[in-house]
Fold this protein.
Amino acid sequence: MLPIGLQLYSLRDEASANLALTLEKVRHMGYTGIEFAGLYGHSAQEVSRLLEKNDLLPVSAHVPLAELLADPAGTVAQYKAIGCSYIAIPWLEEARRPGQPLYEQTLEQIRKIAEECLHQGLKLLYHNHDFEFTKLDGAYALDRMYATIPASLLQTELDTCWVRVGGEDPCAYLHKYAGRAPVVHLKDYYMEGPDVSPQYELIGDTKKCASESTSFEFRALGAGLQDMPAILKASEEAGAEWLIVELDRPPKGQTAEEAVRASRIYLTSLGY
């Protein structure tokens, strides 16, 4: 069975308040790996010590594109020092998205960052949302990115929630990128109606996630619309190395910690 990690952004408030305690709780829940989204004011050395203390593996890190562009070598070196195998670009600001003025330049910049990662012994991932399922010249922008930048430089981090919100089958996309999908994001959600446009609450963005008046809600794994057993099977068939649970924000009636724990319990019930 594939190992299960947690994107620490799921518990960002808790990690900001007390990273040591949060990592301890994550390990007690049964997670064995961590994907970072910032270091919460700690040095790479401090983070490494906390991971070792809690027997947690540093899988990867979501690092904003602006941070990588400002100091490619130094930023990659910081996460190499922690022991991460992967760095993931988590998000594109609006001007850099498909069809926008900076998109072509952004693809070239991603290629250069990937080369720096390779030089230092790490691999670069791209973490999608649904806006990459915009078509450019008849093809999805996400597919164009992976066709433009070779697999030797850029791997996928398919977010199975946003693939489905984007109108595609997560399992089909995992099979499509078999051998290029080492880290898979497990995320569940509930949505009603065809006209719901979920917003985001992510690094570097000022928008809020879908408000309480909408019918879009992130949920603990197994409590939403995703066919999680099928996604788990497809992840294994695609050659994934890690499954990462991510919760953008907790559902109504649960804290983030409760939903993250419930997700791990659900995966355990499926044999993971």
User: Anything to note?
Assistant: The chain has eleven helices and twelve strands. Confidence is low (pLDDT under 50) at residues 202-213. The domain at 4-188+220-269 is CATH 3.20.20.150 (TIM Barrel). The first helix runs from residue 12 to 17.
